[in-house]
peptidylprolyl isomerase (Brachypteracias leptosomus), 231 residues
Amino acid sequence: PARTVPRRRPPRNDMGPGLTLLLLLALLASPAQAEGGTAAVEEVKIEVLHLPEVCSPKSKKGDLLNAHYDGFLASDGSKFYCSRTQNEGHPKWFVLGVGQVIKGLDIAMMNMCPGEKRKVIIPPSLAYGQQGYAQGKIPPNATLIFEIELYAVNKGPRSVEAFNQIDKDSDKKLSQLEISQYLKEEFARDGKKRHPSAHDEILADIFKKNDHDGDGFISAKEYNVYQHDEL
């Protein structure tokens, strides 16, 4: 009989307020622009260290990922980053492919499935370039090595599900009333005290950054800037 290998239980995948908070931040953020070309992809070297028997779903641009990763300098192997030593050891949540991590990691973590482990080598041009990152102890023109363990792949904050959560009347566009109600529900859920003007200021900012045609609604096309779902 096959031997059962005990596995460490991954961190709890409890989206809850975390996803709704990211959804709000995504609405406030400037839309991400699609980047063309494939030359950069060829510069990232990827070695798969572990691939689960069931490899699904695979990550794509706009997905919300949960992962741990360690960073090393290729020049001497010294470790400059460890996600396990931050945020009380919880793995990091981030949206893939929109610049929340360095470009090399955005590339290296595409088409990755929960439970997969990778070792990736990222050239300076897709990391911190000629400037380096002094605060992170990364010198100029440094090639970086990351060891990554992915725990979860979820629909991101610009997904169909997130849009439908706000679109109460299912007319494929978000009105000021719908987003206003969403904000009120989120504010009530987190329980933080805010100035009475905060609601109106955030609502105005959301429409300023998302209502590109100025018609008073955020259409499905305007909302879904990551373009990985059909709305």
Q: What stands out?
A: The longest strand covers residues 144-154. The CA atoms of residues 171 and 206 lie 19 Å apart. Residues 1-19, 32-41 have pLDDT under 50 and may be disordered.
